[in-house]
Amino acid sequence: xxxxxxxxxxxxxxLSAQMNPEQLRDFLDVLDSxxxxxxxxxxxxxxxxxxxxxxxxxxLH
Length: 61
Prior knowledge:
Elements: H1 5-17, H2 21-43, H3 48-60
């Protein structure tokens, strides 16, 4: 499930408002780590499997 950016931000703000400082720090650490993982994944060269999936997507549309 992918939320629109505004909705995602609202949910994060709502959730973080309910956390104590330690929980909030841990939560933000998780978000930072996930952002780093996404950037690292983007930098990886495409594998044969992802290339095949991309070709299949094009063929289906």
